Amino acid sequence: MAQRFWDHVSASLPAVAVAGALSVAAFPAHAEDWRGWNVHPDGYPNSVALKFFDEEVSEKTDGRINPRIYNNAVLGDQPDAIDQTRSGALDFGNFNMGPMGPIVPETDVLSLPFLFTSVDQMYRVMDGDIGKRFADALAEKDLIALSWFGSGARSFYNTDHAIKEPDDVKGLKLRVMNNDLYVDMVDALGGNATPMSYGEVFQSLKTGVIDGAENNFPSFESSNHYEVAKYFSETGHLIIPECLCVAKSSWNALSDEDKSIVRTAAEDAAKKQRELWEEGAEKSREKVEAAGVEVNVVEDKAAFQKRMEPIYQAFIQEHPDLESLIDDIRNTQ
Ligand code: GTR
């Protein structure tokens, strides 16, 4: 895929930037060298699992396929990377289903606040028939979802005060991922949502362009947002799965034997990621608390949930065909 990736880069960047990218990334020349996207830094649970995937695939295919994950979103921000993987300019990536919604509407179901009651329930859903249904919807948009990673539960954090009840969100400017459902979610709480790429959040918090954002403990910590936002309130409003997705064109170029090796490696990488997540989330929590972040438990989650009802109503009105999918997820024990 090297040639197509290169064409894409050279078509979209000025010559100086292209020369810079060449010297920084030193793109390998063989067609079987796979380039993968990851937003997180080295050491993050997902990054460790993705590195394992790289090594496992290279080893088990005797070097026929050599995936290499590029951390820290150096290959672009998430919505661009999803597009690039769909077109085959990138070969694989670890994508959150939040920014996937605008491309694969079915996955928007997973961005409905308080849909899942626990991370374990989310795993059970995604590992079963419903997960296959999402994988089919992604495949129609040229993404082959091989396994599902977790990303804990997302909560609000900000620079000003603890959020204990919905009205505490009033007037706060909060960064959200690129999906209108999150804008509606923050609106419903009386805040002002600002969709923005992950990489811009730290500076925006620092300069006061935004007052806060929402994420899980590992991201709050590894992005250094905790250095600026000292109030983390455990609303746990979103539990969103992430895929290890391969570009359809890269997938179709594999032999059946290699497909099976790559799929198994992706499934094993997901197992690893889920294990590492538990431990990592606890460590991140301890680190931010030690750094002076005030973490508060939100007692009355039902009050937040209640504010989300109009979002569900509007969603079902717009996508009547997805109502039974919401019910099926809710009914999964
Ligand atoms: C992280 C997630 C990333 C990205 C990021 C964000 O928790 O793992 O894929 O979606 O949040 O907020 O942009």
UniProtKB/TrEMBL annotation:
The lineage of its organism: Bacteria, Pseudomonadati, Pseudomonadota, Gammaproteobacteria, Oceanospirillales. This is C4-dicarboxylate ABC transporter. The keyword Signal applies. NCBIfam families: dctP, TRAP_S1. The keyword Membrane does not apply. Pfam families: DctP. Gene3D superfamilies: Bacterial extracellular solute-binding protein, family 7. Keywords: Signal. Transmembrane segments: none annotated. GO terms for biological process: transmembrane transport. One of its GO terms (molecular function) is carbohydrate binding. Residues 1-31 form the signal peptide.
